[in-house]
Amino acid sequence: MARLTFGNPVSLGYLALVLAAVGFAVLDGLVTDPADASFSGVWALLLTAPTIFPLWLAGDALWGGSGAPDAYLMAAASLAALVNALLLGLAHRALRGPRRSTVGTGWHTRRHGDH
User: Fold this and answer.
1) What is the pLDDT of residues 4-56, one digit of tens each?
2) Alpha-carbon span 87 to 109, nearest angstrom
3) In contact, 32 and 26? CB cutoff 8 Å
4) Which sign does the torsion angle of CA 111, 113, 114, 115 carry?
5) What number of other Cβ atoms are within 10 A of residue 27's Cβ?
6) Strand, helix or coil at 104?
7) Distance from CA of residue 68 to its chain's centroid?
8) Is the peptide bond before 50 cis (omega within 30 degrees of 0)?
9) What is the DSSP letter of 49?
């Protein structure tokens, strides 16, 4: 699962994009006035869609009207990004097709003329 999540260029590109969006949101939060309505965090949430939405709704259901704590929302966004990266890794592997492994195939002498 780790290879599918982190070991291909599609998943790594996606995770880099999410990390850049989160970094931008954090930097924007540090630089701008908190009273201003900034939508910088929306990009990170949109990049983790559609997986973030059931987790977000589950947090609202667990904590009721008070809303989920920020730590839960950050953990849910992180989990959603990892699940999406895994799914992208599975799609990447499926689109590449089956690979022939050279490990454990041995030396077949009939193909090489040594009868």
Assistant:
1) 899 999 999 999 999 999 999 889 888 887 766 678 888 989 999 999 999 99
2) 41
3) no
4) positive
5) 11
6) coil
7) 22
8) yes
9) T
